[in-house]
Amino acid sequence: MKKWLNEFKTFISRGSVMDLAVGTIIGGAFTAIVTALSNGILKPLINTIIYYCAGGNTEALSSMYSVLVGVYKIDEATGSQVLDLANSVYIDWGAFISAIINFILIAIVLFLIVKAFNTVKTANSTITDKKKILQVKIDKGIKLTKKEEKMKAEIEAAEAEEAAKKAEEEAKAAEEAKKPTQEELLAEILAELKKKNK
């Protein structure tokens, strides 16, 4: 059981799993925003446009839907027959157009996210390639340009900073390892108490 828990801990602490979890949460929140935008703003606007395109009167309301099986009821105020949308089977064109707009919005946002990720990935690989080119020139004794010298200095500064951070983390870890555990402290206290009682 302990081995399984260790494997699960290793799996869950991987960056890709955490990225997936964050992406899922953000995706769910974004979907809720797009759905609210669609149902609360776009669909009423689309239905209003369809209503006015169909004539803008009470008969135009029924043209907003393609009724497949209509159930009608008598409107008590006017005494005329009106379509009972709750019990009828119909195609809601506003909802359909709204769903298409939802899809386009989500596709655009996903495209922008993937594009940003690819840009960062390309930039990282470009830096790695430039480091390799610089190293080859240095190894062969080829004189570097001013731009390459500046890049070399920036790379060396970044590597020195990273090495300093790593050394600091190792020093902290070594210091933590030197500290006695609670069990060791309790054992020392018990030993001192036993000495005093004798």
Task: Summarize the SSE layout with pairings.
Blueprint: H1 2-12, H2 15-53, H3 58-63, E1 65-69, E2 72-74, E3 81-83, E4 89-92, H4 93-140, H5 146-178, H6 182-197
Helix pairs in contact: 2-4
**Strand pairing plus helix content: what structural class?**
mainly alpha
Level-2 CATH architecture of the largest domain:
Orthogonal Bundle
Secondary structure tally: strands: 4
User: Residue-averaged pLDDT, rounded?
Assistant: 78
* Rg (CA only): 34 Å
Helix content: over 70%
**Uncertain segments of ≥5 residues (pLDDT<50)?**
none
CATH topology group of the largest domain: Non-ribosomal Peptide Synthetase Peptidyl Carrier Protein, Chain A
Beta fraction of the residues? Answer: 5-15%
Shape: flat
Count of alpha and pi helical runs? 6
Largest sheet: 2 strands, antiparallel
Instruction: Assign the CATH class of the largest domain.
Output: Mainly Alpha
Look at the structure and name the CATH superfamily of the largest domain. Answer: Large-conductance mechanosensitive channel, MscL, domain 1
Q: In angstroms, what separates the terminal alpha carbons?
A: 45 Å
Sequence of strands across the biggest β-sheet: 1-4
Q: What is the string of SSEs from the N terminus onward?
A: HHHEEEEHHH
Q: How many domains comprise the coordinates?
A: 2
